[in-house]
Amino acid sequence: MPESSPVADEPLAGIDDFESIVREHRPRVFRFLLASLRDKESAENLTQDCFVRAFKARDQFRGDSKPGTWLMHIAANLVRDHEANSRLKFWRRKLRSDVDPNDLSDWIPDQQKSPEAIALAREQVEAIWKAASTLSERQRTVFLLRFVEDMDLLEIAAVTGMKEGTVKTHLFRAVQSVRLGLEEGK
Amino acid sequence: MKHLSKVQISKCLIGDATPEETQHAWDCADCRAELTRVESAFSDFRSSAQHWSQRADATDGAIPWNVRIEVATLKGLYGGHETIAGIGSLLIHVAAVGLLLFAGTLPPVQKAMKDFVPLFAPDLKPLQPKPKTEQSKGGGGSPQKTAETKGELPKVAGRSFVPPIRPQDDPKLALNPTIVAPDMPNINAPNYGNPLAGIGIPSAGNGIGTGIGAGKGPGVGPGNGGGFGGAVYKIGGGVSAPVPIYKPEPEYSEEARKAKWQGAVLLAIVVDENGVPQDVKVLRSLGLGLDQKAIEAVQKWRFKPGLKDGKAVPVSANIEVNFRLL
Questions:
Q1: B47-104 residue pLDDT tens
Q2: Residue B25 is part of which domain span?
Q3: Are B319 and B269 in contact (CB under 8 A)?
Q4: B248 & B204 share domain
Q5: Per-residue confidence (pLDDT) for residue A37, from 0 to 100
Q6: Are residues A20 and A64 in the same domain?
Q7: In which domain, by residue range, is A75 found?
Q8: pLDDT-derived band of residue B279, with 50, 70 and 90 as boundaries?
């Protein structure tokens, strides 16, 4: 649409090619949702929801953050809503309170390591998953964003909508709990 | 500077450590090892999450809502014969329902419906054991050679001061002879006797006591005590209930214990004037040998007998014996 006013098109500048955005960010959003929910079906559904929401609200995207951060913000909100909804379904929460070891069974940390080291690494990873599943929703989100998505504190603050200090507090508590889980797992 | 605390290491992990702490973590081998250990665990955790998500993400890279799915139209699946097929289906259903309704009107079916066999609980009353005619509780008269003969029954009273036969000659205080008996048919006769006995030489029977008949006591008939043969007092109407004073618990039968059988046996007994249960009968059975155990137990019971006008009398009573497993 070459005739339309360039001012109106300005906010869309970052996401005019929605398809490429989806292609670029889908794996990350899905990974975050999967790690948060530990349930493939729900993660797929919420990934879908996330991009549908983003697509509907693409006019409101102001371009003051990266599209990836914006999408992760939507995903984090979806996780929070999902947790609030599933709090009623306590039996489902019980069902998926732990990671199925089969999901991680064919994961091999590093081919170079000795079998003992691999076994140890596996145990530790399972302990971390277990500990992460017992965290509160906020702590877990912050923890996953930091250590799976490798975001820095400012990015996490932007994604979760929390202040940096709040992020620090949640992250610190999460790390303490996970380390406690690691010590117990040994 | 001493080693970093756990809290400080956690702060290093989240990138919230002071420059000194970061410096120490670099310089001190122990702290660096600890930090590296946790960091490598977290790094493994990250790679496992990535691996899991890649494996779970079957639609890797594909964009689901960009795939156009061709939906085959249902039109033409019947080769253009939808109307005929629909009407045919309707006709088949109508025919099936009609056939069922028609089958119901056929004579054999109607007959079969009329010939249904009603199921009801059989009436077992004629098969149940008839109660034995009660043994008499009547008292006999004074010892005479012959059995009591037909005659007028003396006045019924609570106590018998003057025996009906052989009244005292020339009494200081004239009293009509009385006997202890329930209401029973009476006749008018010149002599006292049992209205139900045969005619013969006037006699008051060959029993012991002050009554009429072959028994013992102030009543009528061949039994023991007051009253008339078979007549046992019922509780109420001036007759007090017998009160158990010794009631051993019933034993459990082995079968019932194994079957964890519980319940109550209802027994009908007659408590005689000595407080001993007589004539124990089962009114409501429980089975599995518990009836026998209940009877055995109740036969050991002793009662304070029922009283009529202050005097112990045989009283019929129902007793429920409970069997409970703890």
A1: 888 888 877 775 544 445 555 555 555 656 666 677 888 899 999 999 999 999 999 8
A2: 6-49
A3: yes
A4: no
A5: 82
A6: yes
A7: 1-97
A8: confident
Q: Do A88 and A67 fall into the same domain?
A: yes
Determine, for residues A128 and B56 on separate chains, whether the beta-carbon distance falls below 8 Å.
no
- CA–CA separation, B248 and B242 (whole Å): 16
For B175-232, the pLDDT digits (tens) are 676 666 655 666 666 666 666 666 666 666 655 666 666 555 666 665 555 555 545 6
Give how far Cα B128 sits from Cα of A121, B160, B266, B294, Å.
83, 40, 16, 20
pTM of the model: 0.45
User: Are A172 and B10 in contact (CB < 8 Å)?
Assistant: yes
Structure token pair of residue B295: 């009877």
Put simply, the answer to whether A104 touches B56 (Cβ < 8 Å) is no
| Angle separating helix axes B29-56 and B19-27, nearest 10 degrees | 100
DSSP string of A79-132, one letter each residue: HHHHHHHHTT-HHHHHHTSS--GGGGTT--S-TTS-HHHHHHHHHHHHHHHHHH
Fill in the amino acid letter for B284.
R
Of B4, B20, B28, B50, nearest in space to A179 by CA: B4
B21 chain-A contacts, CB cut-off 8 A: none
CA–CA separation, B41 vs B148, rounded Å? 115
ipTM confidence: 0.79
Quote the pLDDT of residue B89. 94
Name the 3-class secondary structure at A151: coil
